[in-house]
Amino acid sequence: MKTLDLLHRWIGGLLGLVLALLGLSGAILVHEDAWIMLPHAGDARIADTAQIATTVERLMADPAARPRSINFASDEFGLHRLSFKGDAGAYVDQAGNLVTRWSSQWERPELWLFDFHHHLFAGDTGEIVVGLAGLAGVFFAISGVFLWWRTRKTFEFRLWPKRMSRPAIVRQHRDLGILVAPLVLLVTYTGASMVFRPVSALALGPSAPAMIAKAGKAPKVDKTKLADNPDWRAIIRAAHARFPDAQLRTLGLPRQGNGLITLRMKQPDEWLPNGRTMLYFAADTGKLVEARDALAQPAVVRGYYTFYPLHAAKIGGLFYRLVMTAVGLALVVLGSLAVWSFWFRRGTVGPRIS
């Protein structure tokens, strides 16, 4: 138990602040659709295939100004988001009229906050640090339960320490931690699994990483150039004919010469906000190459597709968003006070935190 206590304290002292910052940014991001205050953001989603096709034709008409991808309006957010080369992008209404545009992610708080939460502004390296922090959170949730058990009879609900003394901080940390431990375990495990796919094997079985990777690979086709004027209307009609009850969520142009136009759809029974029902069209002819029904994937893959909506509170409505907000704020308190008491509360390094 002494070794477990030592590991809990030292890992908390080293990564607690990262978890606190991830908790704070996550708590803000779960309400993203509510605080993006732009004209038409509250518009109802247009489901008519013909109107969607007309808008896509308008947005894709000029090859020189064509976006790389379109993220279509949803039931929660009434604007289409366009992505261009680099960090450039724009919001347009559902008729294709420009609402706002940007040349850098720093011009849109939801973009740089998302980048921070996922990459710490450091690309792949930052993503690895985020994943490690997620694994640390899993360890804290499990080890904290064992360490709390010794002092369970002194439990007292307290959001903030009675005083800023080391014993009071330790007690508050321990008792608040046991309350949020199950949800901390959920949010940190799902987050770590999305960064380090092999971690998913702990919940989904040893075959999960390979099956998930296979399900995410685009079909192999000859590298072809995008046609000057693809028949977008025919492509969208074909997608809706294949999955008539699904929402069109994203449209992506070929990248790295893969020769495919990618459409992503969300069926009613899918939890992922952008769905995982995929359709691939030949870039030169617009012919359907392959369609993948997310609901027909193996149970392991479907299980993995629940990780993101559980992590980001994309299910359960306002109640679950408020629960995840509370968990994020609890991580702020637990992580920041753990680091402060470990490094700064007294002169020697490593005061007890559990």
Looking at this protein, list some descriptive labels.
single chain, 354 residues, alpha+beta, eight-stranded antiparallel sheet, 49% helix, elongated
Could you please describe the fold and organization of this structure?
The protein is of the alpha+beta class and 354 residues long. 49% of the residues lie in helices and 11% in strands. The protein is built from twelve helices and eight strands. Strands 4-3-2-1-5-6-7-8 form an eight-stranded antiparallel β-sheet, with helices on one face. A hairpin with a 5-residue loop joins strand 7 and strand 8. The longest helix is centred in the middle third of the chain and has 30 residues. It is elongated. The C terminus is likely disordered.
Strand content: 5-15%
What's the end-to-end separation, in Å?
A: 11 Å
* Structural shape: elongated
Order of helices and strands: HHHEEEEHHHHHHEEEEHHH
Percent helix, as a range, is: 40-55%
Order of strands across the main sheet: 4-3-2-1-5-6-7-8
Report the oligomer.
Answer: single chain
Average pLDDT taken over every residue? 92
Rounded radius of gyration (Å): 23 Å
Number of strands: 8
Poorly predicted ranges: 347-354
Count the DSSP helices: 12
> Could you describe the largest sheet, including whether it forms a barrel?
8 strands, antiparallel
Structural class, judged by helices and strands?
alpha+beta
